[in-house]
């Protein structure tokens, strides 16, 4: 590296080694060329600057000799040479390798920079280039002139830098420099530094010395700056602290939150609290807003990091923070009151009439903040905390800004700001994966960006894979302040013992959220939920439902995994008992006429008094119950079996067939073979497989359930199993075997004495006769079933009966009656959320229509069947759409639907496949 110097002795360094550049005249020549680097210097000007009025006899020859030797010397340096240009010479080099030009460049950058801290660093870098007297060891009129000009530039730069030092609170650095010999501006800086340092007496003494000197030497009074400073000292006005840290250069997004702070802190004297979990970027947001609005607070800005939740530091006591603020406001240590209460009172007095912004970062709780609130109503306060600081909101009128995670657009913007849009565009799938796994947490995204920046050749896909494998490990930089585990750990360790236990136990929740009652059951303490929400480790994202951020949940799961297994099992048992009890109560309202299919469940039961509240609870908690059941330890096998039996009818009605298959398969694996519970689980799996179109597998399960029902003489299991077997036989066109099974199912149902079970068997028999074309016989059975439904007040039975009667009366040539039955059946289905009924009723209703009337009904049925995974009803809808479009002349649509129907019928093994093949052959 080449270093060309004139700010001191004229020197040339190559790789840190100083080169011998000859005697004084030769150095003079080099100095002239260095000062005009990149510009041609005429020979006459070179002669004048080097020798002045006493040139040698043949100056051009002497100059040529010096240039020749310098050219040889510099020729070995990379990028440096002396070239002849017209009647002169030019030194070709990068101006930044010449210290004086780098000095000028840094000063220009500092003057253009709006951030004081950055500008100060640039001034420091520029002044560090000076190694003494410029062009020392050289002596000529021209050298003297240049030296004086450079010294003036340096003096101005020092003064500009010291103004910045005072503005940024670095007054100690000003005092560390030697006292100036003269100059009003430098004297004013030193006097202000003494005042800011809490030494008003010394400041006044130096002011008087300057005033006297000005009067003696110039017969003048001090200028406006010194007079204003003198007045400020005399009236006790403190310094103007500028303590804000530099705003994060990677800050992006949060426009809505910045606007919210504008509103919250609009009036003087306002207190705003930014609260949220660790890692969301609360400090970034607070400092950004404070920096952007610093001009609103002419008396300065106070800032303290209270380290309330800091993995690397103990919390800063409020008393220490008060003393720090008093120092920033100009109070010398010797002037501090001895007691904390006195110090706090002095702090309130000094802030009572000032317009200050006070930023209290990372506060632990309300007590941490209260002693730092200013006096009067002219100051504004911005607090950040992982706690909601409810006491501050309640007793001090603070305004809250709960900080949420970044949305996907904001998160992508943050990554693009750090890594560049081109980098993101090159690997869009990896970026999407990274965004999903960081979950909008600002610190997680910043860690990802830092890791990529540290290894620019590494592909984003590799980091995404690391996040998939172990997110918390991938988001650990090895430094406490940049590790998510450490950030979460600081919040966790600040919790009271009961809340800390609750936090760990929430790591057992297998889904993204949990209801209030379930959380209370799991934790055994309702208050713990409130404490965790206040600590921003838990969020009530919907009324009565709570969730943790994914990354926080992973941390909680790591903690609970280290707990005693008995503790974990006890907590899981409490949660499972809660779900069993509440599910049983909900099902007693959802399907009140068949308690015989559900096991008895003890424990406290809620009162689902509101209409549809039972169904709403089942819908809200379905995912949680199924996830808990499928991840339960073997010790909770009985709970899983009972939960599956309890939810059987709900999952069937709501057409959650794939989820039902998972739950019932789990229950079957955990049930004891040969027991009635095992038999009912076999039936539940078999029946669910029917809806999913897997008839062979369904039959295998049902064929195990039926012999057990007969052996146990369990008429309930026999009736249910025979109905399901008959359904398979009917679908496959084996009518006699289906009739035999339906007859036996009806007989078994009547032996149980359960009216609803008999009504179901009668309805199934009616459906069977309808499929056989015996519409009159079908109507007879269906009306019998309908009377039972009416007697019981059972919409669950009445709806399917109405739909079946619609098909029967259509077959009897009574379309108006058929339409009325279908419309009533669809009302039952939609009011009761019976998706299974709705899809079959739509298909059957559409089958009684033609052309344009049928198409929208089939389309609705197809959409519902696809959502439910009901393959048979998908086949019916595709078949019907194919026929309807064919009749309407839409040949392309007809063929597409018929081909889809053929695939489904073939998979089902249904006889309708032959009819569809024939239609396709004719197309």
TrEMBL record:
SUPFAM superfamilies found in the cross-reference section: C-terminal effector domain of the bipartite response regulators, P-loop containing nucleoside triphosphate hydrolases, TPR-like
UniProt domain OmpR/PhoB-type: residue ranges: 1-93
PROSITE patterns assigned to the protein according to its UniProt record, in alphabetical order: OMPR_PHOB (PS51755)
DNA-binding region(s), residue ranges: 1-93
Keywords from the named record: DNA-binding, Transcription, Transcription regulation
Coiled-coil boundaries: none
Family under the similarity heading: Belongs to the AfsR/DnrI/RedD regulatory family.
Name of the featured protein: Tetratricopeptide repeat protein
Source organism per UniProt: Amycolatopsis plumensis
